[in-house]
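FAQ: What does the model actually see?

It sees only this:
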Amino acid sequence: MNPSLNEQVLPRGTGIALVTPFDSKGRPDRKGLRRIIDHVVQGGVEFIVALGTTAETPTLSKEDRMEVLELVKEGLDGRLPLWCGMGGNDTRELLEQLSAFDLNGVDALLSVTPYYNRPSQDGLYAHYRELALATNHPIVLYNVPARTGCSLLAETTLRLADNFKNIVATKEASGDWMQIMEIMRSKTADFKVYSGDDAISLPLLSLGLDGVVSVVGNAWPQTFGQMVRHALAGESTEARALHYQMLPLMTAVFREGSPAGIKFILQSMGLCEDHLRLPLVGISTRLQTELIELRRRFGKES
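And it is asked to produce this:
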């Protein structure tokens, strides 16, 4: 991947892990999704991620996922780079998805480690090897062991990056600082590393990470994105001020699960309804009250 293409597909800064708005009948809500996309684009973020964890992808059928991807491409209309979540715990099925989905307009694939069946490091390597050989799209690894039950270790991440030119980045949501630092210490200059944890993104950025894939940025793209830009520019005082301003919100939004908290906030902002698909349910009345008060104190973004 040449440097100019690298910067286009993998910009430094904030990406938004889009929610999937549903209507009252549980169908993807085109208008709500368009409002959210416009909101985050106008908020000045650097890229968009469709069909990630925050999109409730495990509850979406193949047809739903294809529909949501088309709606995101339509709403985004090429205004920002677009990553698409493309992962699973059955390698063969994942490769079938590659051929079934229309990936025109998708700049990179974000591929979560296989969940539930807990493969070994050799199994993880073999899984991503097959994915890398089956597509020309740039691949961003996604390590989130709290959700998947397995961790893609630094050694395996680096081995994949060294052996496959289209494995170009990783999204680290492991919370394992030693692992992240080992990746940063040993990686090549053009391999990108992004945080997948909103609340600890600022200290992680001080280690040299390239950006953040954010959930709270669905609601506060301007402020969160500015915090990340300050951090990347070495403006630590300004970045810390925004980080601590947002910290109560970042903590509360995740308290009863994601994306339940952020969907409630988006509903309160008039961007979409807060319908979820089972087994996810809405947040408690107590947390609703707390989030409304925190949002009132925080103020509105322009």
